[in-house]
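Most newcomers find our protein records easier to grasp once they have seen one. A learned vocabulary of local backbone shapes supplies the integers on the structure line. Here is such a record, shown just as it appears in the course material:
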Amino acid sequence: MPELAEVEFFRKRWALAATGCRVIAVEIHDRAKIFRGATPGQIRTSLAGATLRSSETAGKQILFRYSANAWLGIHLGMSGDLTVQRPDAAVGKHAHLVLRTAKYALVLEDPRMFGRVRFHVGETAPTWWSRIAPAILSKAFTVTAVAAFLRRRARAPIKVVLLMQERFPGIGNWMADEILWRAGIHPRRLCGSLTSAEVKRLWRECRRVCRIALVTVAGKGDTLPESLNQGIPKSWLMPHRWQPGGKDPVTGEKLRRTKIGGRTTVWSPSRQPESPREVR
């Protein structure tokens, strides 16, 4: 599932192609499950003739704001993809939403339909957008707030808690492993066992990984890499997570892999011991 930086990559792909452009045709698979909670007919009527004004991301969700107070929300799920194609491009059976402009066709494809499209018309942001937790890079994401959240989940493994979107919006499987690796915290450690120094380190690495990932994965300013994750450096844990016999890029030690909370988890034994100590 696309995580924080990958979601920003997809937002920019559509935004750079179509901000300021008028939608001249809307094509929708009315019965596609991704429209649960939204009305395809309302989307079709409201977006035909509308102009894309702005866009933003929050956690794993994307918001495109159109003229006439139309708000289009997209959660890509496991297999969703936003592409930009020729304005007259023929699309496949998994293209459940196509917004055609004079220059491009904006296409939402989702073969497994685990994603979701939301829609709202109104002057103020819809509740499904405004209730998303404060961004990790915002001032509201404080050490104090993180510490309190962990205390309330003292008996849960830290890897499981890092995936909770109500406090760590946008963090997914690979980012959680990256954060814990950098912080030197074993993913199976219970939240209640973390020292105050470890909590502060965890908070710092959450912000650091998010900040660096946004630039590395989605590009700076109005630039966009040609493909997703092409800029991830080999000094990160991420490129080594799925390699057979993958090794810690710092220590050279063979990485361990297991499931924690049902999610595949990778860690470096000497760098992330099961008892507290200073990170190597």
Q: What stands out?
A: The chain has seven helices and ten strands.
